[in-house]
Amino acid sequence: MIQCSHVRYICALLALVFVAVSVTAQEVGIELNEMRARAESGSAKDQSKLAYAYYVGQGVDKDYAEAFKWFRKAAEQGLPNAQHSLGVMYANGRGVPENPGEAEKWWRKAAEQGESLSQYNLGLMYLEGRGVARNFSEARKWFSKSADQGEARSQYELGLLYSEGQGVPKDYSEALKWIRKAAIQGHAKAQYDLGVMYSKGRGVPENDTEAFKWLRKSADQGYDKAQYELGMMYYFGAGVPKNWTEAYAWFNVASTNGSMGAGLLSALEKKMSESAILEGQKRTKVIIKEIEARNSAQK
Question: Virtual CA dihedral for 205, 136, 144, 75, nearest 10 degrees?
Answer without folding.
Answer: -150
